[in-house]
Specification:
By secondary structure, the chain is an alpha/beta fold. It folds into 2 domains: 173 residues, Quinone Oxidoreductase, Chain A, domain 1 (Alpha-Beta Complex), CATH 3.90.180.10; 137 residues, NAD(P)-binding Rossmann-like Domain (Rossmann fold, 3-Layer(aba) Sandwich), CATH 3.40.50. Helices cover 25% and strands 27% of the residues. The protein contains 10 helices and 16 strands. Strands 3, 5, 6, 7, 8, 15 and 16 form a 7-stranded mixed sheet that branches.
């Protein structure tokens, strides 16, 4: 079967690979759609020193099931949690399953293929059944779960003014949920060249767009002088500016990822101290909230179809991802589909 691989800097190739037999607690999934994630982009840009399979935002159909599998069956449509919690971990037994980061994981085991492939082997415990959605829509459930974690971390209250910093798929989904959570006013910030992302932010409920390549966040004329919550899905280096625009009692919730020197953040401690700010990390490990995400998509509370800007078959992965990266004006989410 065919599977795609990546290697830094921005190298992609399609290979013929063979899969082993599934174990008794695993399933073989026929991949129907897989999104290209921001983390995949980091791997491709500089983190993948050797060739690696990639893709974890996928939907598909169970083709085979191990003898001990009970939660899904052959023929089921499924999406995959990248990891889950160990119910016997101390934090889980104390009621905080979201603190356990050592449970079963798809990302830790070396794979012959991942989501950018025709088939993939998955621990059955990570599979969640769904219906009533297209495969393309369902492929966005994993990043939607990440956006839900960001929203819950931010703890938005009725009448809060909210800044969404970074209008990638996660930022745009978080924006929709911030609106539904009762935000009074939403500011959305990104580069002016990301035209389609800024247009969608307006469609999804943003009251004002801030082009961060044209105006500093600190210089923008916020209606209340600042904001109550900042949702950061941009690089961590933006956290310093996010702190500066918070009102008293505000919170910065962030999930942007960088490595090396780019991961180091600085901010004025006096601002955080005197304004009584909270700076809180969102990390969707373990992956949670999938049933809730499925319900929200089916109810139309969050719209994901407009986020899918580029769709292509597996055989065109190399050229299609190059086109996606080059299309700065329109690029939001690239999804590979297998017919």
């Amino acid at each position: 079967m065919k599977a795609a691989f990546l290697k830094a800097p921005y190298q992609f190739e399609l290979r013929d690979v063979s899969l082993r037999e599934i174990r008794e607690d695993e399933v073989l999934v026929k991949v129907k759609a897989c999104g290209f994630c921001g983390h995949d982009n980091i791997l491709a840009s500089y983190a993948a020193k050797d060739w690696e399979p990639f893709g974890h935002e996928f939907s598909g159909i169970v083709e085979q099931a191990g003898k001990n599998v009970r939660n899904v069956a052959v023929g089921d449509c499924i999406v995959m949690e990248t990891s889950t919690f160990n119910p016997l971990a101390e934090c889980s037994l104390n009621g905080r399953v979201d603190y356990d980061q050592d449970g079963p994981s798809f990302m830790n085991e070396k794979q012959a293929s991942m989501g950018f492939a025709e088939y993939v082997i998955v621990p059955a415990i990570l599979c969640v059944r769904y219906d009533g959605l297209t495969f393309e829509e369902a492929s966005v459930i994993e990043p939607l779960g990440v956006a839900v974690d960001l929203i819950l971390t931010a703890d938005i209250h009725l009448n809060d003014d909210v800044l969404v910093l970074g209008l990638g798929p996660i930022g745009l989904m978080a924006l929709q949920m911030a609106k539904a959570s009762g935000a009074r006013k939403i500011y959305a910030a990104d580069f002016s060249q990301n035209v389609r992302r800024c247009e969608l932010a307006k469609q999804f409920g943003a009251d004002e767009i801030i082009h961060t390549d044209k105006v500093k966040l600190e210089d923008y004329p916020y209606a209340r002088g600042g904001v109550d919550r900042v949702l950061v899905s941009a690089p961590p280096k933006t956290i310093g500016s996010a702190v500066n625009v918070c009102n008293v009692g505000g919170m910065v919730a962030f999930l942007g990822i960088s490595y090396g020197p780019e991961a180091i953040v600085s901010f004025d401690s006096n601002v955080a101290h005197l304004r009584k700010l909270t700076i809180k990390g969102s990390n969707a490990i373990p992956a949670l909230y999938f049933p809730q995400c499925i319900d929200m998509l089916k109810a139309g509370l969050v719209r994901t179809k407009p986020l899918i800007s580029h769709v292509f078959p597996l055989k065109d992965t190399v050229s299609a991802l190059a086109e996606y990266r080059a299309d700065v004006t329109n690029a939001i989410k690239a999804v590979m589909v297998n017919k």
